[in-house]
Amino acid sequence: MAKKAAVMKGDGTGPELVDAMLHVLKSCNTQTELILCEVGSEQWQKHGGETYIPDSTMKQLEESDACYKGPTTTIPTPDAPRSVAVSLRQKFELFANVRPIKTYDRLSPNNKLDFVCFREATEGLYAGLEFKMSNDSAIAIRKITSKGCQRIANAAFSWAKKHNLKKIFAITKRNILKETDGIFWAEIQKALKENSGIDVEEYYIDNVTQQLVKNPERFNDSVLLSTNLFMDIISECASGNVGSIGCVYSANMGDSFAMFEPAHGSAPKYKGMDKVNPTAAILSGAWMAEYLGEPHIKDVIFSATEQVINEGKNVTYDIGGSAKTSQMTNAIAELASQKLKK
Q: Are 226 and 172 in contact (CB under 8 A)?
């Protein structure tokens, strides 16, 4: 029986990037049933509601085996709804935000990186527990639980074992945040006892940020693991080494559901210009195909994308080319389809 995926087009450049992803998947003859639905601030501004996610979309999500989210815009005012990503991570308990960091030869000839970032995605400062104390002061609560830390620690160790990685870097600020990061560190120590052969090294967040600029190769063949806000920042910093945030794909994993998305924002100023890099959108879709039982599709799409980027003939402006989104998409789709037939 074919698997079912809800596909949310999003805001800004989201719809055209989702179209690019769908074109590549369909060129590889995916058997997944792909159901388009709406989310985001643009539809919210038209129709209103308490969230960016319409009831009809939520129903499709609940009936699907996985979902794909195009980039969305979160309006930064107190009266606007919570972001789509945060809402869905909490709704479906998608506790592991996973962002692989891998360079391409043409974009980073002197800087070869290959590691993965694991971010706890349901609590921390993103729990949304904020309170006004007066007209000119407010507090935000960093919620850290043993359950949340245990889940993300176990997920990181499982990934390391599956991919034969021998090192996990645990990123904290435990010298200052002794209680909250103390819980996080304690759960990592418990997981370490159950996973022999994997080394754990603790880094403070300020130091690891500096190292990602100065000497990012030290993190190769490892997992970087942290709480919600810290890893949001760290994974973004790491993405800067890849050549463009437009190349960075991600997944949000739970025990029985997953959401796939490009790691970048909606770039509304480029909406409809056929200009932005489709790599992250396409690779996120390919990863979803693997999750839904089509690993052969992921393999050919990843291979084709790497070849197109390294050849440099059909790439977008942000990675040194002049191709349109559609031109780069077509080049990847055609090459992936050819690889699939071999």
A: yes
Q: Following DSSP, what letter does each residue of 82-135 receive, concatenated?
A: PPHHHHHHHHTT--EEEEEEE--TTT-TT---EEEEEEE-SSBGGG--EEEEET
The answer for residues whose C-beta is within 8 angstroms of residue 334's C-beta and 6 or more apart is 27
What pLDDT digit, counting tens, does each position of 10-36 carry?
999 999 999 999 999 999 999 999 999
CA distance 198 to 176: 27
The bridge status of strand 199-204 relative to strand 66-69 is unpaired
Please give the average per-residue pLDDT across 196-220, as a whole number: 96
What domains, with CATH codes, occur in the chain? 1-77+265-342 (3.40.718.10)
> What's the predicted TM-score (pTM) here?
0.93
CB–CB of 35/56 below 8 Å?
A: no
Question: The tokens of 228 are what?
Answer: 């919600």
**Distance between CA atoms of residues 156 and 300, nearest Å:** 26
User: DSSP letter string over 297-323?
Assistant: HHHHHHHHHHHHHHH-SS--GGGT---
The tens digit of pLDDT for each residue in 123-136 reads 999 888 999 999 99
Longest dimension (CA), the chain: 66
